[in-house]
Design goal:
With about 325 residues, this protein is α/β, with parallel strands linked by helices. Helix content is about 50%, strand content about 5%. Strands 2-3-1-4-5 form a five-stranded parallel β-sheet, sandwiched between helices. Helix 14 packs across helix 15. The longest helix has 22 residues. The chain starts with 10 loop residues before the first strand and ends with a helix.
């Protein structure tokens, strides 16, 4: 066991969407010392920006207002819609308030996550969160939690972009640009926290799951168990891993069969530098050429429409208008500033 044997959290799992964050969370949850809610939070940056406006949350009247305002955030919607280890019971205002050891951003967040993950303050379990969007907020995570551990799972941009298109009909070129920008940012942001940062490639997890999980368990100071290799239930409701309760080793390099060469070349030209940072060699000799601001804007507009359509189909009764409001809340909660 390494020097992190007394680590009790928080453990943050980050990465681009459709890159294996749900799979990684599912595997870690097979260990009895790890607790992570089955819903991603995503709202920490939003809280930090607005924290002073909530007032002194040790005053229960202020806390009640804070509680009511946060019920609009997607995390709390999904806590009721999807459920957790607490069988979908949304934390009550009174319980949350009494669970807080202090009323700072970090203290209130920890109380919520420990409750929803089932990790008591007096246990030696590890509490954490799986929120892909925090990939752009690494400095904030360490500012709030200096002893935190961050696990970043990264997937080949070509398969990532293909999966984004398949899952939500979003533009693969915009996906590639976001991948390039965000994985480059976390590479830079993590330099000051190398002992608290663990990087894992999605493809390595598929090829050598035992080796990857052993290294990850050592990083957070727990003993690897073969029980971690099989999921209680599928972590995916989209894509080629949908319905599977084990690691699907063949779920990689799909772009070689499903992506035309013109699209692949363009994605490689957008992501050339970032690909080299993570050891993904391009198939084609290309010059780096990223998307313009105008291209990004129009692709973003189209992506927002397709995402709203997808969400309205996923959640009965939400409708297009409800889906737009839902994702606007998610966007505001995750924006950088």
């Amino acid at each position: 066991m390494n020097q992190h044997h007394s680590f009790t959290g928080p453990l943050f799992i980050v990465g681009m969407p459709r890159s294996g964050t749900k799979l990684l969370r599912g595997l870690l949850l097979q260990h009895d010392k790890v607790g992570i809610p089955l819903v991603e939070t995503g709202f920490l940056p939003f809280w930090v920006r607005r924290w002073e406006s909530y007032g002194d949350l040790s005053d229960f009247e202020n806390f009640k207002k804070f509680y009511k305002s946060n019920l609009k955030i997607p995390y709390f919607f999904y806590m009721k819609y999807e459920g957790t280890r607490h069988h979908g019971q949304l934390i009550s205002c009174e319980t949350w308030y009494s669970y807080c050891q202090n009323y700072t951003v970090a203290g209130v967040f920890e109380a919520l996550l420990r409750h929803d993950a089932g990790v008591d303050y007096h246990s030696n379990g590890i509490w954490g969160d799986k929120s892909p969007g925090y990939i752009t907020h690494i400095p904030l995570l360490f500012e709030l939690y200096p002893k935190a551990r961050v696990v970043h799972i990264v997937r080949d941009v070509r398969d990532y972009s293909l999966s984004i298109k398949t899952a939500w009909n979003k533009n693969p070129l915009r996906a590639a640009q976001r991948w390039s920008d965000w994985v480059s940012k976390i590479k830079f942001d993590s330099k000051l926290h190398q002992q608290q940062y663990f990087e894992i490639k999605y493809e390595d997890l598929l090829d050598e799951p035992v080796k990857c999980l052993e290294e990850l368990c050592d990083f957070i100071g727990i003993q690897f168990s073969t029980e971690m290799l099989k999921l209680d239930s599928s972590t995916e409701n989209l894509g080629d891993s949908k319905g599977h309760t084990k690691i699907v080793g063949a779920n990689k390099n799909k772009f070689r069969e499903r992506m035309d060469s013109k699209m692949q070349k363009r994605i490689e030209s957008i992501s050339k530098t970032a690909m080299s940072l993570y050891g993904y060699p391009p198939d084609f000799t290309v010059n780096e050429k990223q998307l313009s601001k105008a291209e990004l804007y129009w692709y973003q507009v189209a992506d927002a429409y397709h995402l709203a359509i997808s969400k309205s189909r996923e959640i009965k009764g939400l409708g297009i208008t409800g889906a737009v409001k839902f994702h606007l809340q998610h966007y505001l909660a995750n924006k950088s500033n």
